[in-house]
Amino acid sequence: MQVLSLLSLAAMEEPGVRQRKKATPGSSNNHETGGETKPSPAFPKVLYGLLVVVLVLALYNFSAVVKSQLNQFLGIPDPTRHLPGVRTNLSKRDAVVEAFKHAWLAYERDAMGDDEYHPISHTGSNLTKAGGIGYVIADSIDTMIIMGLDDEYQRARAWVADKLSFERDGNLNTFETTIRVLGGLLAAYHLSGQDPVFLKKAHELGSRILPVFETESGLPLSLINLALREGAPDRDNNGYISTAEASTLQLEFRYLAYLTEEDAYWEKAEHVSTLLRVLHQTLRPKMGRYRTSPIRLGSRGDSYYEYLLKQYLQTNQTEIVYREMYDTAMTGIHDHLVQRGLSSQLLYIAELNPQQTQGGGIEWRLVPKQDHLVCFLGGSLMLGATTSGALVEHVSVPPQTDELTHQGERDWLTGVELIDTCMATHDTQTGLAPEIAHFRIPGDRMDDSVAPADWYIKGARPDTPPPFDARYILRPETVESIFLAFRLTGDPKYRDYGWAIFQAIEKHCRIPTGGYASVINVDQVPVEYEDKMETFLMSETLKYLYLLFADSSVLPLNEYVFNTEAHPLPVFNPTIRTGFS
Prior knowledge:
The chain has helices at residues 2-22, 42-62, 64-74, 90-111, 135-147, 150-162, 174-191, 196-209, 243-247, 250-260, 263-274, 302-314, 320-336, 376-385, 406-424, 477-489, 492-508, 536-549; strands at residues 32-33, 36-37, 116-118, 123-125, 171-173, 223-225, 230-232, 241-242, 282-284, 289-291, 338-340, 347-349, 351-356, 362-367, 369-371, 436-439, 455-456, 518-519, 529-530, 560-562, 568-570. It is mainly α. Helix 14 (376-385) runs antiparallel to helix 15 (406-424) and helix 14 (376-385) packs parallel to helix 16 (477-489). The two termini are 48 Å apart.
């Protein structure tokens, strides 16, 4: 503020300087002594004012603090104010790069082109008997670009260009193929400087998936036969499709439409959103009817909420309908699902399960269960608070109270607490979080010697086989939220959180001969492995860790949205009519 005061003083002096310059030699501003004209006392003030201006300009150019204050004083928006001024942590970032190479090179050695990798048996497998479509490669190639792994990238690109084929006469999951393969190819196209190889393959894949929308309701079918270009229902789920499956195709199809100028991709995907104004968990594609089922933010529901916000952000916040749907959904979550644990008051997101009453009706029971998948929501809420819930165009880091709406403040605080809860579930023997956590509630009649005071793994007992809930399958959701929280706050504690998780992965999941494996029980040391390395390890978990330790200018949040598989897609202004009422 002292610099700003000097500027104000110089500005006050300047009008007087101009008046004195205009005065004629005989005016009262000239003092004569012995016929000589004395130098004007205003001259040093002019020089003083110029020196002050030079000083301020120098400070403006070299001091971010002064620049920010001066911009605010002059009413000039600072486009970088919302990005934390933090530097790359080279040693930790490079450790993540080394981990990626340990995973990728093992896959490339043992299973190049296969959809899945099994690091202990050194084998690959495919999702159809007709062969694979390179799930691992498509899911990982944009991470190579971001990390600057040019040699690995060139080999992966060559495989895509020369060997990737979609002529596979077998059913693949529509949702997974879209978020992993289509999303990966689209991100690679953008990040590679628009290499046409990736857009060509993405366009072909999109055209082969498009028939899944050819249903009576317009809701997509769960499965797609890429060779026959035919959709198919999921018989294992009685022909229903989950909310997440139906509503997590939009970012990818809309960006494909933008690139190809083929509106059908946009229209088919957006039509789904018009049918989802009222949320239930599963829908029948034929008629578009809802089936009563659990309401949750974990499996089969999570990414619906994620894409409400991200559709609004993807088109540069021009589609207000998605903001409205997002705001309504977040209010519903706070009204019905946000709960607190028994001892430490940990904030968690519960589930609502339907139960049939004796009279044939339905009543809803709150279940204190939170999937690891729900941990995406912490960072998403914080991102939503600084965009959908912002009162100003450029929010501070961290945001100030007067910059957020009431809902924005609420969502921000919930997001911060939820991340802390997700980190609390890493308090295990391995430092890894389980697939599912249950929280203590009053009257649960649980023995404190069996179930800890805050949360527990249901069914876990000493000297018994571990339940499915006890697994850690290299999931990225907590790391994703930590990355977003760090970008939005600049708080170094989030880097500490991420590094602790990374170290736990390195210690307990790393296979010495190459690759990483899932852990069957996070509360057992030494660990027992499941022989599988999920593709999202390289696509999401390691990518978000890399970005956590990288400079904040890498993939800035105001220029990109990440699809639910962490593929960065650029924000753009749509060229076709969008939105619906």
